[in-house]
Structures are given as structure tokens and as C-alpha cells.
Specification:
Elements: H1 27-32, H2 55-65, H3 68-92, E1 98-99, H4 109-122, E2 130-131, H5 134-163, E3 169-171, E4 175-180, E5 183-192, E6 198-213, E7 216-223, E8 230-233, E9 237-244, H6 255-260, E10 264-273, E11 278-287, E12 291-293, E13 295-297, E14 301-303, E15 309-311, E16 319-321
Parallel strand pairs: 4-12
Antiparallel strand pairs: 1-2, 3-5, 4-5, 5-9, 6-7, 6-8, 6-10, 10-11, 13-16, 14-15
Length: about 350
């Protein structure tokens, strides 16, 4: 008579082995890293060699992400530097290389050549000044071609900057450990600095630190469970909270533990940007020394009148002090087995 196998009992999700997490670097590389994985501005701290200098690609990426004042300063500096080189070339040919330069009212030969060079480079005209001789004429031809290419590239970069979908999230300067629902919570605040609307905003927080496994210190990753990991819209600000409870890998944690583990919190935010109707993403991170204890965030709301809800973005990072030990001491309900960090 065949025996009926006993049913396999359902596993409690809290007791099941957690799904391994990683940032895509692999275990060996992750353990070799001693600095932060993500810079505060969201750029990765890693580098790739063996692909050449890639100066053009790097310049293009920097041109897309630079602020508008810096971008315009770059264009002006390149324009003046290039025209200065051509002006020196014209000046080296002697005063007879440029005819009609006396009409410019400039006594300095270099300024005459620079004025002519800028007019040729930007196709704005040279006020009757023209080149004389084969060498000077060839310089005009070369500069005209270079100037045309510069204008096309500058216009293309400007259009790419204007049409590039992106969001600009401002994060609080520090992550804090503050009181939360009778215990403690790790939290940070963020706000959308652009006028465009963001919807379906999602956030992920990955904790990276060193733990002890069979007497060996290795880096481990934990995807932190958040109070809320998604909001439909973010018109004002959002305080992202990870409750420290019996299920949290940070249960029973103290500031010294966080320092010993060399912890880093990697933040990834994605949202639907309505101006271009596409998803955009931004990253940042907080290291252990950028986490504050025994404080809470100050109110960010302000009075705007007319029954409007308004915030003051300048208050995003403001905190209020709490009694010493308010959050440095683990809460009573953090009664799970502590993770071995030393």
C-alpha cells in the first residue's frame, strides 16, 4: 500500500532565506571595495580602463549634466581660446596679412586679428577687413570650417540638454535615526526641484556593510523594507522611512556598530516624468558618517495663505535635537537576533 507523503509545511516569510542582493559588482569585487559605491551626486565611484581616453564621450556626458551657467562658460571659453589661436596665427603673418584693419579703430595688432577672427569664426562679418595672401586666405577657410562645426555642435548640445528627460531630486544632507511608532526608524527626505510633475515615484534603499560569516568578515547587502516604497505623485516632499524592528537587519544597532560595519545606504529613485512621458532615475548614497542620531526632522511646512499646502525647500535638511540616547539606544521591540558585525 502506497504511503501518502506528508505535506510540506508553509515557510514563514520571515524565516525563509532572504533573496541575495547585490549592486551588480559581484561578491569578490564588493569585498575588495573600501570606499563608497555611489557618490552623493549619484555618479558611480568605479572606473573602467582599457577603452582609451574616451575624451569625446566624457565631454559629451559632462556637457549634458553640467549646469547651464557652467555649460555657457565652457562654450565661451572654447570660443575665445580657438579664436585666440587663430588671431596669433594671423598676427604672425605681419600687418599686411589683413587689409582694412585700420577701420576697426584698434591700435593693438592682436586685438585687430582677434576681432577679425571672431567675425570669421561666428560668421557675423568682419567689417570690411579681409585676408591678403595665400596663407592668410587658407587660415580664413580653415577657421570658417571650424567655426561652422563649432556652431553645429554647440546647437546640438543645447538641443540635447533641452530635450533630455531627467528629474532633479534634492535629498536631505543627512540620513537620520529618529523615533518612529514607539521605536526607531532610519529616514531621509527628498523633494522634486523641477517644475515638471513626477508620478508613480518609487524608491529602493540598499544597505551595504561588512558582516561576520563563520569568522570571516565579508560585505553583505540588504534591501531595506520601507514604510512606503511608492507614491502616486510627489508634489511636495517625501520622507522615506525604514522601520527598525525585529525583521530589520539594523535591529539592535548602535552608532559604533554602523561605523564598524562601514555601512553605506544606496538610494535609487525612479519616476514617470510627465513633460517627456518617460521614466527617469536618480541615485545617491549616505555613508555611516552621514547618519545622524538623537535628532528628528524639523517641520518643512510653511504658511502660504488661501488654504494652500506649502513647504519651504530650504528647510529640507533641518533637524531638531532630541535627548541624548533617544535613538542611540535600541528600542525594546528590536528583539530579533542581532547580525554579527564583529
Amino acid at each position: 500500500m502506497a504511503t501518502v507523503p506528508e505535506p510540506i509545511p508553509d515557510l514563514d516569510p520571515a524565516e525563509a532565506d532572504p533573496e541575495p542582493q547585490d549592486l551588480g559588482l559581484g561578491r569578490v569585487v564588493a569585498n575588495a571595495v573600501r570606499g563608497r559605491f555611489i557618490n552623493r551626486d549619484g555618479t558611480p565611484s568605479s572606473r573602467k580602463f582599457g577603452l582609451g581616453s574616451q575624451r569625446a564621450e566624457r565631454f559629451y556626458l559632462h556637457a549634458l549634466t553640467a549646469s547651464w551657467p557652467r555649460f555657457i562658460w565652457w562654450l565661451a571659453a572654447i570660443l575665445l581660446l580657438t579664436n585666440g589661436i587663430f588671431a596669433l596665427a594671423f598676427n604672425s603673418l605681419g600687418p599686411s596679412a589683413l587689409a582694412g584693419a585700420d577701420s576697426l579703430g584698434l591700435d593693438d595688432p592682436f586685438m585687430r586679428a582677434l576681432s577679425f577672427s571672431v567675425g570669421t569664426f561666428t560668421t557675423t562679418g568682419t567689417d570690411g577687413v579681409h585676408a591678403v595672401g595665400n596663407t592668410a586666405t587658407w587660415l580664413v577657410i580653415i577657421e570658417s570650417i571650424v567655426g561652422l562645426l563649432f556652431i553645429v555642435l554647440a546647437a546640438g548640445l543645447s538641443i540635447a540638454r533641452l530635450l533630455r528627460p531627467r528629474m532633479q531630486i534634492r535629498f536631505s544632507e543627512s540620513m537620520i535615526v529618529a523615533p518612529y511608532e514607539g521605536g526607531r526608524g532610519v529616514m531621509f527626505r527628498m523633494v522634486n526641484e523641477r517644475s515638471s510633475e513626477l508620478s508613480d515615484v518609487r524608491v529602493r534603499v540598499m544597505l551595504s556593510w561588512f558582516e561576520m560569516f563563520d569568522g570571516v568578515r565579508e560585505r553583505n547587502f540588504h534591501l531595506l523594507e520601507l514604510e512606503r516604497d511608492q507614491v502616486e505623485m510627489m508634489n511636495l516632499h517625501w520622507t522615506v522611512v525604514h522601520p527598525i524592528n525585529a525583521k530589520s537587519p539594523m535591529r539592535g544597532l548602535t552608532p559604533d556598530d554602523l561605523r564598524t560595519a562601514q555601512a553605506e545606504f544606496v538610494i535609487s529613485v525612479s519616476a514617470h516624468e510627465e513633460s517627456f512621458s518617460t521614466r527617469v532615475r536618480q541615485r545617491t548614497s549616505y555613508t555611516w558618517d552621514e547618519v545622524r542620531w538623537d535628532v528628528k526632522f524639523a517641520s518643512i511646512f510653511t504658511n502660504a495663505g488661501d488654504d494652500l499646502i506649502a513647504i519651504d525647500v530650504e528647510r529640507l535638511s533641518r533637524t531638531e535635537p532630541l535627548p541624548e540616547g533617544a535613538t542611540r539606544v535600541p528600542a525594546a521591540h528590536e528583539d530579533g537576533p542581532a547580525i554579527r558585525l564583529t
